[in-house]
Every structure is written in C-alpha cells, then in structure tokens.
Amino acid sequence: MGYLCLGLTVTPPKPKLVLCSSRHEMEARHIQRAAELADKSAGMTSPHPNSGCVICRGPNVNVVVGEGFLYAQGTKPAELQAIESARDLCRGATAFLNLEPGDSYGDETAVSALVKAGISRVVVGLRHPLEHLRGKAIHTLRGEGVQVDVLGEELQSKTIEEALKYCLSVNAPLLYRAAFQVPFSVLKYAMTLDGKIAASSGDASWVSSRLSRHRVFELRGRSDAVIVGGNTVRRDDPRLTARHGGGHVPVRIVMSQSLNLPEVANLWDISEARTIVATQRGARKDFQKMLASKGVEVVEFDILNPRELMEYCYDRGYLSILWECGGALSAPAIASGIIHKVYAFVAPKIIGGAKAPSPVGELGMVQMSQALKLSDVSFEQHMPLTLAIILQIGPDMLISGYLHPIPDMSPVIPSLDETSAIDPSVKSYDVRILFFYKAWDPYGALSNFSPHPLRMPDGNGNYVTWPTVEHYYQAHKFVGVNDPLARECVEKIKSAKSPEEAARMGRTMEKKRPDLVQPEWDSCKIDVMYRALKCKFSIYPHLNLMLLSTAGSVLVEASPHDLFWGGGREGEGLNYLGRLLMQLRSEFLGESSTLSHTSS
C-alpha cells in the first residue's frame, strides 16, 4: 500500500500498513517518505532546511501512525506535527527523520517533543550539516535513553544507501551552502536538438513546450533568486516570476557590468517580486538613481563576477539560486565553480545556424577529454508519449545532473568534549563582534524570525499572541490606522504561516500602499521593536541567559541589505537591532546585579 500525500500538516485518518520484503527495505521506505514530505516545503518559504517525520509502530515498524513536515523556520517542527497526529500511539513507536533536528539555541522543541511523547527509537537520515548543530540533537536524545540509529553509521545496506542518497538530494542546497560557503546554484536552459537556445536572429519563443515551461516555473518557485545577464533583459524582457498562484516568489537578479540596460523593462516593476541589479562600482550613476526611484535595489561590486555575486548571495542567507542566463554568462559561472547542477530541456527541433547562440559559451577547452561530466544523471519526458502522438508534437526531454557531487558531511562528528561557551569577561581592548542573521546561526535566536511566540497587550486591555517578533513588528506598521484594509493587513500578517511570509506581506503593502502605514511609524518603529524584544527575552529564560552570556561582545545583525536594522555589507549599516539587544542586555544585567545586592 502506498503512502498518501496530503497538505501542509499531514494527518493520516487512520494507521496505514506498509508492505515490504525486509526490515531494511521497510526502514528505507520510511526515511524516503520523510524526505518526500520534507520536499513539500521547498520554495514555499525560504530559506530553511527541509525536514520531515514519519512515526511508525508494529513489530516490523510497518504501521504509519503520524506524519508531518517543517513549513519554514519559525513554524511548528515536523516532529511535533507527526506526534500531534499520532497522539497516544507515539509511546514505544519509532520516528523516522530525514534530517537531524536543528533547533534554535536552547529551544529543543522537536527533541523534547519526541522524548515527552514516549518515542523509543529515532532513525535519522542525515546529521545536521551545520557544524554548531551537527550531532547535538542525536546526543541529547541518546542522553534521554532514546535509541538513535543514523543511516550509514548504525544502519548499512544497499537499500539504506539509496535512502541516504534521497536525503542528500532533498537538502542539497543546505549541504552545498555549508560545505562551500556559496548558495546551491542550478543552471537551467532550453535548447533544440542541435544545441541552440535561439535562432540566428535571436528569437527564442518558444524553444521548449508549455509543459516544460511550467516545470521552469516550479524551479523558480524553489529558488531564493533567479539570475540573468544584461543580454537576456535587452533581448527577452523577462518577468522571471514563478507564476504558480502564490507562495514563495524569488528575487530577480540582473548582472550587468556597464548597466547598458533599457529604461523600461518588466524587471523594474517590483509589485510582484523584488529586483536586484548587480553592477560594477561607479557604472551609470544616473541610471542607478532611476532604478532606485522605482524600488530596484542596486548593488555595486569592485569586481563583478559570478563568484563575487554568489558570496554576496551567501551573505544574504540565500540557499538556492537558479541561473537562467545565456551562454556569455553561463560559461564564466561554470568556470568559476559555482554551478552545481544543470537542468537542460531538449526540444525535438532543429533550427541550425552557424551564429545561433548555444547555452554555454567559451570555456577554453580544446579536447573532448577536458569536457565536464555530470554525475547522478536523470532523464525525464515532460509529456506522455500518447499525448504527444495525439497532438502531433514531440515531447521535450529533461536531462539533469550534478557538476559537483552532493557533499556528504555526515562523517564529521564533533567530540563530546567540544563546547561553545561564551566568556562574558571580554576586555575593552579585545572586543569581540558576534554576528547573527538567520535563525540557524549559532546566535540565531537573536533573530526576529526565531520561533518564539509573544503575548503582548493590544492597547485595549487585551493580550494578543504573535507567532514571532517579526509578525508583531510588520503588523504594527498598520495598527491604529482607521481603514478597513489596514485592519485586514494586521490580521493577515498576524496569521501568516511563517515570519518570512509576515515580512513579505508587511514590506509589500508598505510599498504599494504607504497611505495605510501609521503616520508616526518612522519615529515609533524603534520603540515597537524594543517592546517586542523585551517581551521575548523576558518570557523565555533560556533566551535571557543566552543574551546575558554575550556580555562584553558587540552584537551585529549581519544583514547585508538592511542598513537600518542591520550592519550592512561593509559595516555601513546603523545596526539598530543589535543596539536594542545590547541595550536590553545592559538592562537585564543591571536588574540581575540589583537582585543580587538585595538578596545579600
């Protein structure tokens, strides 16, 4: 009996029996199912690890009683969803996880939920790829008496190897980012059977079929950013939207050294998606001002090349990048080693033309033995053959594979003696700077996106629960405005499924309808943030202790693009979030000192 694919919170109506010939095959199936569930969140909101959980019972662990997957950081963990689905059937059951839990500092929701539910055994597909989280949850579970088996370590067989490979592919973006300090980059192109991406005239409408283009929209929806070069903007005037009716919309990035770009282009319309233009420092300042007036972000580089751009995207926290460029840009991207996977849509057409462009430009190779070879190659047809015959058209072929193998970081296991204790007695002449940005960072719980709900007064004597600080902050842009649409914005942001979505809603509405933002927002937003932060670090003791442990260090939110709340790319930001946290730290330390003197 197969598994049943459900929605965001997977709640099987009744236990399901899964038939397999051996226990190893059974456990491999459950791990693959956890990975399949995890993959459901790819592109819904980003960036975050993809994690799923399947809870099973029975002497051969062949009865599925609960399932779940993580929607985004700051939302309910996959393990907790599966436990809530299985309820009392958890006691003595086995939980299958495609990825080791990676909770925020001190907030072991997934781990504690597994222990409290009475799970007796946990099977983990991959240790967490981030060094400060790797092995932490496994060690904690084992310390609580839970048996933990890791694929490739305690469990080994041919079927287990296949399941492990599946776990690697589902979290490939996170693994590449952790191993190479650049986002996972995919090069996508569509070409004719004779290797052309357009006719000699430059016309490229359409090389591939409608079904193939729909698959491209899916690839965009799974990416944090889509990159094109100036030639693509001038020739095709693309929109580069996901066009899937909601969910995650990637940032559009244009690489252009000279800024020889049209003044009117679809990408300059940021109502659907944000646009970043990466250029050489000093290029066409007047054109930069024009783009900025439209809300397009311009980032200048001393040396603009694919490697520098990817390092910048890494600093912004991006996990996955889709390159939809022509051969002039794809060649240097491949040559710089930052393209990890290729998706080639091959249409059963021949266009010819000695000067017709090809998908990859000059790489400097003169012998076939120098050719780059793909690994883990797969072939897919994007139209059933019977339908192709009826429509009298040939189905496109999708060929995909990796230019660089997926890094398997599981053998790197930290010793039990390793610690990450913070010395609070830092001298003024030896000041340390502690950077934080994403919720998965070592100090990620300092982020507004960390999964810590707040209970705050609403001004009418009532208390309202907000999922995260970011939900509270974004919604308060519109609080108090006497307009039904403003009140609707507050409720939509409050119920957003993740802090990323709350931020996207608040920022988008602020740009589209500045008249709905409360008039005193610029003067009161720091106080709004302060109240939310004080509540967060007051009601969670472990967060308070973590903040106090940073005493003597400068706290900097390492956002490269938010020059108000963050520190900026080159330290030019105002870092108001870091300042507020340090102010709170000083206040809490003062209170602690006062309490100490009083008690003595």
Give the SSE map.
Elements: E1 16-17, H1 23-39, E2 52-57, E3 63-69, H2 78-86, E4 94-99, H3 109-116, E5 121-126, H4 136-143, E6 147-150, H5 158-170, H6 172-180, E7 184-192, H7 210-221, E8 225-229, H8 230-236, E9 251-255, E10 275-280, H9 285-293, E11 297-301, H10 306-315, E12 320-323, H11 327-335, E13 341-347, E14 375-381, H12 385-391, E15 397-402, E16 432-436, E17 454-457, E18 463-466, H13 469-475, H14 484-494, H15 499-512, H16 521-539, H17 541-549, E19 553-557, H18 576-599
Parallel strand pairs: 4-5, 5-6, 7-12, 7-13, 8-9, 8-12, 9-10, 10-11, 16-19
Antiparallel strand pairs: 1-3, 2-3, 2-4, 13-15, 14-15, 17-18
Question: Descriptors for this entry?
Answer:
six-stranded mixed β-sheet; diaminohydroxyphosphoribosylaminopyrimidine deaminase activity; glycosidase; 3 domains; hydrolase; oxidoreductase; Dihydrofolate Reductase, subunit A; DHFR-like_dom_sf; disordered C terminus; disordered N terminus; alpha/beta; nine-stranded mixed β-sheet; Tetracycline Repressor, domain 2; 34% helix; 600 residues; Cytidine Deaminase, domain 2
